[in-house]
Automatic annotation (TrEMBL):
Signal peptide: none annotated. GO terms for molecular function: carbohydrate binding; glycosyltransferase activity. Keywords: Glycosyltransferase, Transferase. GO terms for biological process: carbohydrate metabolic process. This is Glycosyl transferase. Residues 11-293 form the Glycosyl hydrolase 94 supersandwich domain. It holds the Pfam family Glyco_hydro_94. InterPro entries: 6-hairpin_glycosidase_sf, 6hp_glycosidase-like_sf, Gal_mutarotase_sf_dom, GH65_N, GH94_catalytic, GH94_Enzymes, GH94N_CBP, Glyco_hydrolase_94_b-supersand. The keyword Protease does not apply.
Length: 812
């Protein structure tokens, strides 16, 4: 069942009912000011950091769903009142539509011959959210209506705002000046910032105290002021400050009223605050307000935003016979990659914004999916990440985006983390040719006195693996590897006994075959990079270590039909036929094959066959099988989940892409693309009632075959699934892969395909690539012609002339 449709021409997903299976959201902003907005205008805004600079309040896990806050509008019409986005008033509408586009959302509603259209967006280079509100009388009689706006201020620190009521109920402060409501809580004391909500029209009234506007025992659905059709002109003094305007509007038949509302954030220098003795300097706010005083200015900013996204999405596009593939690659996957770059895993409808900051592992992987769009910001992000790295090559698992410092509450010891930095830097250099980044002096632990060239960071990341190996010579797993719920360095308890540590010396010798597979894949890339920059000695050393690890994987990481997942703290196998449950895991099959393990003796293909046989479902590949049905204390968190959910045999979409890549590596394009279509959002739209989350972006997890709700997704938007699936489809399946000396053409496609076209911008040049498949093969380049000349091999050279180049490739 569908709840909308793709408008490919406008790059929009159009939602045709407000009652979607779960709130379907969009993100506004891509620089410093961000907003989440649902299809009924729920959500919130923040500046840089969803925890420390939360601007508007939102209550997660709320009842009713998605009525925990938003930027809401109400229309009062002769005693009747309703909301353009259906919520929060929830009055039946004669028409409803929500269009989620690239950095903007348009919500339309109509009732009793009054139509409304509200466009929400964050302009480029602007710390604020703009709402263009259009109200039209579509009837035959004059209408007199009152428009109410509403949002609720968060007291800056979202975590403290949610807990510290004994203090916060006494600190709320606002100021009203004309049509602008200023939120200045704590500005006098310790803050150097404030927020405002304004409209480009004289107002009839206002409210800034939540209880006065809503009523003590009313709710968003029936605010007391809206029921009365009149604001109370309340001024918040403590309690919960809000911002609401009311505007009386008279409309003749066919007449339209256009208004511009702005939610803005201002940061003054501390010395400015002290000089003003805590009184808000409104100069910056007034300049921001003046910028969008007219509808024409708003429309120009929307056009600028559209041009920005058109430019970003033009870097890579495909033209094929499959419309779902085209929209997935050309628009929605790349759009989601940019959102995950901006926010890592910090703020979605499943991540509250207070529990974590930017992930080291996460952000390095996210970079893979957007480096072709904004390489300069990728460079900046790499330096930010490397600056949080520890001196031993390990890393803080997360850092706060506002301070860019490691998060002490999380710490390090996730032993896969360091390798992702290597992969991110390799991807950046291949895309840009900027080897100079390796010489960039970069701190350890954000300590400038410990700064070393970035190349030193890569060496220590590489060495962190070989300096931390276990009894088999496989990498130690640490607190966890990529699978945070596989915690093998813990305690075991036999029946009738107290907790005992393992018989090993320190009780921390659990090994990860997945990290070993990552090391063979990423370590090989490190060796090639060192060779490319002329560090032959380091290249040889690295190459030898990778070959050594590959041998260990094939000796002690092979279970007979597939790769083991790990050895626990007692030296027992995980992901083995010997196990009662969890006999096979997906992660090591992908990375070991990508890293060349078993490539020469058929065991790579054997492992991938086992993946389809044991892990395959119609909705994607489950993470492990059989699911755990009881608790294994020695395995940690993974077996605490019910069967079929999250890491316990859920379809963890992130790692599905590694199998797609692995299938492409062994040349099986039919299977690689089959796996791609099982989880790509554009292909799940038809069963949105089962899937529940947005049909235009990936979710982290889909309930597996052992779950009671098989096929239901959770944790949409912020997931490494976005970047890795873009890598899988763009580089491994469609086969346009950046290399140090040019673009490699190496597809692994379904044999039924006749061909397709790719437009790829690379280092300033634009390549128009047509791939033809007359012999209906999956892999192999038979010939390549560039600008009318035959080119040997399969690598497009870097011309560096900024011109367009035509390429014809014949597979076979």
């Amino acid at each position: 069942m569908k709840f909308g449709y793709f408008d490919d021409a406008k790059k929009e997903y159009v939602i045709t009912t407000p009652t979607t299976p779960y709130p379907w959201i969009n993100y506004l902003g891509s620089q410093e000011f961000f907003s989440l907005i649902s299809n009924t205008a729920g959500g919130y805004s923040f500046y840089k950091d969803a925890k420390l600079r939360r601007i508007t309040r939102f209550r997660y896990n709320n009842v009713p769903l998605d009525l925990g806050g938003g930027r809401y509008y109400y229309l009062f019409d002769n005693g009747d009142f309703w909301s353009p986005g259906w919520a929060p008033a929830k009055k039946e509408l004669d028409f409803y539509e929500c269009r989620h586009g690239m950095g903007y959302t348009v919500i339309k509603g109509k009732r009793n011959n009054i139509s409304t259209e509200v466009t929400f967006f964050v302009p480029q280079n602007y710390n604020g959210e703009v709402h263009k509100v259009v109200v039209k009388n579509e009837g035959t009689e004059k209408k007199q209506v009152t428009l109410f706006s509403y949002l609720e201020w968060c007291l800056w620190n979202a975590d403290d705002d949610d807990r510290n009521f004994q203090r916060n109920f006494n600190t709320g402060e606002v100021e009203i000046k004309g049509s602008t409501i200023y939120h200045k809580t704590e500005y006098k004391e310790r803050r150097d910032h404030y927020a405002f909500f304004t409209v480009n029209s004289p107002i009839t009234g206002y409210d800034t105290d939540r209880e006065s506007f809503i009523g003590t025992y009313n709710g968003y659905q029936n605010p007391k002021a809206v029921e009365a059709g009149k604001s109370t002109n309340s001024v918040a003094d403590g309690w919960s400050p809000v911002a609401s305007h009311s505007i009386d509007i008279t409309l003749n038949p066919g007449e339209t009223k256009e208004l511009v509302f702005v939610l803005g954030y201002v940061e003054n220098a501390l010395e400015e605050k002290w000089e003003s003795k805590g009184v808000i300097n409104k100069t910056k706010a007034e300049a921001m307000i003046a910028k969008f005083a007219t509808v024409e200015a708003v429309d120009a900013a929307l056009a600028e935003l559209a041009a920005h996204w058109d430019a970003l999405l033009s870097k890579y596009s495909v033209e094929s016979a499959d419309d779902k593939l085209n929209r997935q690659v050309n628009v929605w996957n790349q759009y989601q990659c940019m959102v995950t770059f901006n926010l890592s895993r910090s703020a979605s409808y499943f991540e509250s914004g207070v529990g974590r900051g930017m992930g080291f592992r996460d952000s390095n992987q996210d970079l893979l999916g957007f480096v072709h769009q904004i390489p300069d910001r990728a460079r900046e992000r790499i330096i930010d990440l490397a600056s949080t790295q520890l001196e031993d090559g390990g890393a803080y698992h997360q850092y706060q985006p506002l301070t860019k410092k490691g998060n002490d509450s999380i710490g390090g010891n996730f032993n896969d983390d360091p390798l992702w930095l290597v992969l991110a830097v390799v991807a950046y250099i291949k895309e840009t040719g900027d080897y100079g980044i390796l010489d960039e002096m970069t701190p350890y632990n954000n300590d400038a006195s410990l700064a070393k060239p970035l190349s030193d960071h890569l060496k220590r990341a590489f060495d962190h693996v070989i300096n931390n190996v276990g009894p088999h010579g496989l990498p130690l797993i640490g607190r966890a590897d990529w699978n945070d719920c596989l915690n093998l360095n813990c305690f075991s308890m036999e029946p009738g006994e107290s907790f005992q540590t393992s018989t090993s010396k320190d009780g921390k010798v659990a090994e990860s075959v997945m990290i070993a597979g990552m090391f063979t894949y990423i370590g090989d890339e490190y060796a090639k990079l060192m060779d490319k920059v002329g560090n032959k000695e380091e290249a040889t050393r690295a190459d030898n270590e990778v070959k050594k690890m590959r041998d260990i994987v094939m000796k002690d990481g092979w279970d007979g039909n597939w790769f083991l997942r790990a050895y626990d703290d007692f030296g027992k196998k995980i992901g083995s036929e010997e196990n009662e449950e969890g006999k096979i895991f997906i992660e090591s099959q992908g990375f070991c094959v990508m890293g060349g393990c078993g490539a020469d003796d058929g065991r790579a293909v054997q492992a991938l066959d086992a993946v389809e046989d044991r892990l395959g479902t119609k909705y994607g590949l489950v993470l492990n099988n059989p699911a755990f049905t009881k608790y294994y204390v020695e395995y940690g968190e993974i077996s605490t989940y019910p069967a079929g959910y999250k890491e316990n045999a859920g379809i963890f979409c992130h790692n599905n892409a590694w199998i797609m890549c692995a299938e492409a590596v062994v040349g099986r394009g039919d299977k690689a693309f089959d796996y791609y279509t099982r989880i790509a959002p554009a292909y799940t739209e038809e069963y949105s009632d089962i899937h529940r989350t947005e049909p235009y972006v990936y979710s982290q997890m889909v309930a597996g075959k052992d779950a009671k709700r098989f096929g239901e997704a959770k944790n949409s938007w912020l997931t490494g699934t976005a970047s890795w699936n873009f890598i899988a489809i763009s580089q491994y399946i469609l086969g346009i892969k950046p290399e140090y000396d040019g673009l490699a053409i190496d597809p692994a496609i379904p044999t039924s395909w006749d061909g397709y076209k790719i437009t790829r911008e690379f280092r300033g040049d634009i390549f128009k690539i047509e791939i033809k498949n007359p012999n209906h093969v999956s892999t192999g380049v038979n010939s390549m012609v560039v600008d009318g000349k035959v080119v040997e091999g399969n690598v497009l050279p870097v011309f560096g002339d900024g011109k367009e180049h035509t390429v014809e490739v014949i597979l076979g």
